[in-house]
Amino acid sequence: MSDLLLQKHNHDDFNLNDEFGQLYKWYNKSPMSQTTSITGTGSLTALNAGVVLGDTSSGAITTTLLAAAGNLGLTYFLKLVDATNNWTISRSGTDTIDTFTEIVLIADGDSVTLVSDGISRWNIF
């Protein structure tokens, strides 16, 4: 197996090429560097980038995303871990989540990965 190649381009991002030639873009934080648990309605910040677990055992919750503008590549890995109620993920301002204004996770284990385009859109992966 070939070694991974890591090239630093500036203080904000890195390009990582693996042996299959896939390109991954990492921003100032590894997207897996932390886990945030959410049990109530609120907003995400850049500090919440990474894994975000939603627990709706106490009631339905709504989480508003950070504005996509200026946050190119910021990634949230969202997963519903207790589906007693729904977890609504809503946009900030006029941003879109692909072409939607919100998405709803409804079943235990439902998950979605959202990546900011840095302008006005959160792409679903």
Key terms for this structure?
disordered N terminus, mainly beta, globular, Jelly Rolls, 6-stranded mixed beta sheet, 4-stranded mixed beta sheet, 125 residues
Compact overview of the structure:
The chain is an all-beta fold and 125 residues long. The protein has strands at residues 5-10, 13-17, 23-27, 35-38, 42-43, 50-55, 61-64, 75-82, 87-90, 96-97, 102-105, 111-116, 121-124.
Structure description:
The protein is mainly β and 125 residues long. It folds into 2 domains: 1-28, no CATH class; 31-124, Jelly Rolls, CATH 2.60.120. Helices cover 0% and strands 48% of the residues. The protein has no helices and 13 strands. The protein has strands at residues 5-10, 13-17, 23-27, 35-38, 42-43, 50-55, 61-64, 75-82, 87-90, 96-97, 102-105, 111-116, 121-124. The strands form 3 sheets. The protein has a 6-stranded mixed beta sheet with strand order 4-6-8-12-13-10, with no helix packed on it. Strands 5-7-9-11 form a 4-stranded mixed beta sheet, with no helix packed on it. The chain has a 3-stranded antiparallel beta sheet with strand order 1-2-3, with no helix packed on it. The radius of gyration is 16 Å and the shape is globular.
Based on the structure given, which CATH architecture of the largest domain is correct? Sandwich
CATH level 1 name of the largest domain: Mainly Beta
Largest sheet: 6 strands, mixed
Number of strands: 13
Mean model confidence by pLDDT: 81
- Compute the gyration radius: what is it? 16 Å
Q: List the total number of helices.
A: 0
Terminal Cα span: 28 Å
Number of domains: 2
